[in-house]
Amino acid sequence: MKKTTIALLLSTTLPLTAMAGDPLPFPLTNLSIKEQTQPEISRFKDAKTCSGCHPRQFKGWQGSMHSIAFIDPVFQAEWAMGEKETDGATRNLCGGCHTALGTVTQTVEFKSESGKFGGFTTQAVANQGVSCEVCHSVVDTNMAKTANGEHGNASLELSTDGGKRGPYDDAKAMGHKVIYSELHTKSEFCANCHNVFNPTENHFPLEHTYQEWKNSPYAEAGIQCQDCHMVPVETAVRVADEMKPAKQLADHGLGGKAGMGGKQRSLVHDHTFVGGNAIVAPLLGVKGGKEHAEEATKRLQTVAELNASVKGSAKEPVLEITVHNRRAGHALPTSLTFIRQVWLEVVITDDKGKELLRSGTLDANNKLPENTVVFQDTSVDIHGNSEHKPWKVAKFSVQNTIPAKGSKTVAYPFELPSETSHYQVEVKLHYRSFDQSVADLLLENKIQVPAIEMTHLTQHYQGVELK
């Protein structure tokens, strides 16, 4: 099949390609409309309309990263950079997931005078990012039609028939048609946006959260994304510890009605979709944003565990720290693993408070020192040079995330003075959605990117023995 190459402005960028005659109508995204038309934006309802009958779901969604997927200023700035550097090739590519409705209605416009690098606008409900209408209008996945045969890059087929698809096969509603969808009960639903590929000849996976889950013990146990991200954090902890889907947990307390006037059900999913981002919603000041940030922080603080031991001899001691990914059903970190940061801060002091070793402490500019152990993938362009712009990333030169139910051990040699018999080891595991340099580059207003302490431990030693 003939290919039409979209030329990019930077010589280090791989050529983005779209398939001529491809059945997917909004390249370079994999979205489509069942009715094979370009619908009017008026066909889709504002999420507030849904809140009347589904207040629990609306409250969970409001302030979530899904609800602000389009207006997220970090995303908007990077998207604007991509618009300029790829001559518009990334407009549909990024918009497909962040504003599916804006993309299929082709109401997304670029305003060069807006923001630090320009900005995007759209209309009506399309401003609400991943809204009720997006998810509940999905009728199928376009996986079989994608260039690489994988879920990703918004590989969703939407319908404008007014029916709302969902997980109940006996649901009835007064305000709209209800259609059962098995797809909505599976991780394959989420996969369509939580796998992201550079749409080049090699289709390099920039984000592979679904694939991480698929290769994990959670997938083997039948635990879906919905079992952890559409329930309270406390339930997600139980799912990970007991390795059972939420509906199989004893006394899970998630019963209720899915809609006003509906039947009592044993489990109704919340729509918070909480992950690890505790920065953007409070930054925007959106309603519900603070609560989502608090839930994200709580989730991060339940995910990992630390173990530490000192080995070797008193003359040549080595501190070994093991980080366990106990409760994330994917890698730690996940999503854009070359942007997210999980790192160790280690401080060893003698019994008089003198430092024997320090690593991973943020400096005065909120940046990490060079010797920091960061669990993160290292992204490079086609020439092997460090690169963080997604449309220019060709591969990962180093992969250093922690798989689901996996662990990684790091060694820290240090010197123990002969006169020192007692010392203290303090270890902290931190998380940031992005580095300070990313905020400095992308945002007009200066902010200090907060670090969240995921977990910590303090141990006292005498020689190489734990006291």
Brief rundown of the structure:
With 467 residues, this protein is of the alpha+beta class. It is 22% helix and 24% strand.
Q: Using only CA atoms, what is the Rg?
A: 24 Å
Principal-axes shape call:
globular
Q: Strand count, sense and closure of the main sheet?
A: 6 strands, antiparallel
Strand composition percent: 15-25%
Task: Kindly report the oligomeric state of this protein.
Answer: single chain
Mean pLDDT level: 93
Number of helical elements: 14
Unreliably modeled segments: 1-12, 17-21
- Would you report the number of β strands? 24
Share of residues in helices: 10-25%
Structural class: alpha+beta
Query: Could you tell me how far the N terminus lies from the C terminus, measured between alpha carbons in angstroms?
Result: 69 Å
Protein name: Cytochrome c
Keywords: Signal
Organism: Shewanella carassii
Pfam families: Cytochrome_C554
Structure characterization notes:
It comes from Shewanella carassii. This protein is 22% helix and 24% strand. The protein is of the alpha+beta class. Strands 16, 17, 18, 22, 23 and 24 form a six-stranded antiparallel beta sheet that branches. Residues 1-12 and 17-21 have low confidence and may be disordered.
